[in-house]
Amino acid sequence: MTDPVLVPPAASAAVGxxxxxxVTLRRLTADDIEGxxxxxxxxxxxxxVEDWRFAFALGEGVAAIRDGELVGTALRWLWGPDHATVGxxxxxxxxxxxxxxxxxxxxxxxxxxxxxxxxxxxAEGRGVYERMGFAITGEIRQHxxxxxxxxxxxxxxxERLRPLNRNDADFxxxxxxxxxxxxREPMLRQLLADGETVVLARDSExxxxxxxxxxxxxxxxxxxxxxxxxxxxxxxxxxCSRHAGKFLRIDVDAASGLPEWLEEQGLPRxxxxxxxxxxxxxxxxxxxxxxxxxxxxxx
Length: 299
Known about the structure:
By secondary structure, the chain is an alpha+beta fold. The chain has helices spanning 8-15, 33-41, 49-58, 100-109, 126-131, 169-180, 185-194, 229-242, 258-265; strands at residues 5-6, 23-27, 60-66, 69-79, 83-91, 116-121, 135-146, 159-163, 196-202, 205-215, 218-225, 247-253, 269-278, 290-292. Helix 2 crosses helix 3 (49-58) and helix 6 crosses helix 7.
């Protein structure tokens, strides 16, 4: 997306058909954020303007405009030279059924041919992504609600939870890179600065961490990085107890063993998304220490 404006002929060439009448595609700008947040609320997505600004500051996107009004968005985040994530793909309900989502995605994917790209798809969008070469690799479960005080998770001898230290950042970023399967240093530094972080230590070495931050209707936990399921539970239980009685959200791998435990703790499942990858394979998730997403869009 080197051009500041993506004109209809360029986008239509990617899919072999014209754009819907009156719609143009251009680069998403900071001036679009309030309109994007309003559009997302129409889908019952709980993003605040601040959540949109956080995501936009780390990436770039395409806007669909009709009669001066924002009617669609798609964002991408480039992580290092080889990876990307895609999200916030949405089309105003009155504009659906005209393949505008495909136009947005083809414009967004321009230049990503040599990257491994991750996204989390709704049931409505999965078919579009499959036709674009994305393969299903898993499922994410969204859990949220008023956090109850979680049961204390007993850790093995030599392991403990401790606060974030001044010199932890570089090592925690390296743990995240391994667990996410891609380098996300700019995002991690922002999360460590804006949120609260607890570290899982084994003797004197950090082996995991979990961050909580303001998001949507309350707070969100993620990422959660740990060497095993017990460590992940301990990190999540810490934030559930610290935020007991407040609204919490967490997005976890469906096969991780965490969904059942979260239900037992009183955080019900409220939704799911399909994990899809193009240009893979992508080594990430519980087997590599990654137990919870930052967001479904950012991965």
